[in-house]
Design goal:
seven-stranded mixed sheet, 11 strands, about 55% strand
Length: about 120
């Protein structure tokens, strides 16, 4: 069982930055692929960025060159650095951990609101 706790969300003006953190419980964090998803009101939950156990990364086109996902296995934490934020980035952001290729563990989410 893995518990995930997100932090770092908030209200920011367009063009600003935020860094989200996701702290994971358990001793096998380094083995998990991790990801950030987001869900805006009335929309489905979509992947934002993924990072594998060996730190290879994937980004949605909408956030490429603005967001950076990283992990610190010593701290059991994954991060999402978000720069040049846009109003369309407003959503609840969720951290998730994969087991055998499926994202099965989810955090409670953290709200990010970008004002224009």
């Amino acid at each position: 069982q893995v518990q995930l706790v997100e932090s770092g969300g908030g209200l920011v003006q367009a063009g600003g930055s935020l860094r989200l953190s996701c702290a994971a419980s358990g001793r096998t964090f380094s083995r998990y692929a991790m990801a950030w998803f987001r869900q805006a009101p009335g929309k489905k939950r979509d992947v934002v960025a993924q990072i594998s156990w060996n730190s290879s990364t994937y980004y949605a086109d909408s956030v490429k060159d603005r967001f950076t996902i990283s992990r610190d296995n010593a701290k059991n934490t994954v991060y999402l650095q978000m720069n040049s934020l846009k109003p369309e980035d407003t959503a609840v952001y969720y951290c998730t951990a994969a087991v055998s290729g499926s994202y099965v563990y989810w955090g409670q989410g953290t709200q990010v609101t970008v004002s224009s």
